[in-house]
Amino acid sequence: MSTTSPTSASLSAPPASAPASSAAVPTVRPLTTGEADALIGAVVRAADDLGVRGSVTVLDAGGHLLAFRRDDAAVLISGETSTRKAYTALQLDAPTADLVDLVRPDGLFHTLPTALDRPLLFLAGGVPLHRDGRLIGAVGVGGGAPEQDHRIAGAAIAELGLA
What we know:
The chain has 163 residues and is of the alpha+beta class. The protein contains 5 helices and 4 strands. It has helices at 6-11, 33-50, 77-92, 112-115, 146-160, and strands at residues 55-60, 65-70, 126-131, 134-142. Strands 2-1-4-3 form a 4-stranded antiparallel sheet. α2 (33-50) crosses α5. The radius of gyration is 20 Å and the shape is globular.
């Protein structure tokens, strides 16, 4: 009688002679710290063009901080808003500008901001980052009017080709 159970047998590695799977998920290069730094620079240039003094946060696909910058003249809360906008865009894989109406009292997700114990913020300025159609991170901009923050983030993403 065999001592290998069906469960343990199914969890074991395939034999060395097994062919590689042709349906393997393609690997997408993650967002790098160099790209995050370049994104910060692009955001600063776009913000300067609009006369906005604020903050920018760049997160990787796991929600970990890759880069952050707050302008000396920015209001202090802009750092928190940029981070929450980036986190919201990452978690929902959508620009925060597209989510604002969904959390209004009559919106589909009106209870979402209070239902979760997460730092979500439904103001324009957070945008997910993609490479080859896969989510690789997010950027959040805070300090200007929400529409300005969204425009700044979009300009920076377009400059680096991370849409």
